[in-house]
Amino acid sequence: MPAYGQAAPPPAGPSALTPPSAPVYGQPTAPVHGAYGGGYGYVPRPPVPGGLATGAIALAVAVTAVQVLAWVTSFGAAEEFERAARAGTPSAEVLTGYDAVGLLLLPVQLAAAIVTCLWLWQSRVLAEAVSPARGHARSRVWVWLGWIVPVVAFWFPYQVVRDVRAATVAAPRRGLGWWWAGWLLWSVATNVATQLTTLSSAGAAGTFALLPVAETVGTAGLVLALVLWVRTVREITAGQRAVTGVDAR
User: Fold this and answer.
1) Can you tell me the distance from the alpha carbon of 19 to that of 54, in angstroms, rounded to the nearest whole number?
2) What is the pTM of this model?
3) Is residue 4 assigned to a domain?
4) Residue 189: inside a domain, yes or no?
5) Among 143, 166, 195, 217, which has the highest number of CB atoms less than 10 A from its own CB?
6) How far apart are CA 31 and CA 36, in angstroms?
7) Can you list the residues of the chain whose pLDDT is less than 70?
């Protein structure tokens, strides 16, 4: 006990009124998510994007379901395109159930792309917060642009997903490469099918028989991609919950 008139000695350990570490002027430090320090105060850890993960899975299933319809209707459409070609009518002037399914596929794909990129963006932010030392091959902007920029779209999205999973999941399972292979197979086959349906009548007879072939290949690739994508999204979400110790929002 201090004598009267003498100041009490300072308490051991850091004061409850000051942060554990004070910033040095001119030398800023990075924020620590989920803790005090670095001159930033309390920096909350990004939440687990569980709702977006569920939406990404649901819309991926929807895209696959519409693709199956496109495959089923492609057989009848090929026959109609063949008859029109023999009569000298361009395929663009022939309306079939296959065309109606194609119109349905576009908005479903757009919705799936937006929700998936939102989920992947939030997952990237969380991955950087919980594993700041782990590098990523691509910057955050490629979470969105990687899917639409020509040429790099063949491998940038795969790298983004791969790095997010590696930074979040302690022991990732194999099969991510097969997911991407199925996605690319569907993308190429869909492009081939689109080219076939825009052929002119001149010399097109006999070519439309390839339409069901392209749709069969594309559907098989997308089903493979869907199975592995659902597994990947669930794996990443489980890893996010484990590494943060909180429930998904």
Assistant:
1) 38
2) 0.81
3) no
4) yes
5) 143
6) 8
7) 1-43, 200-205, 246-249
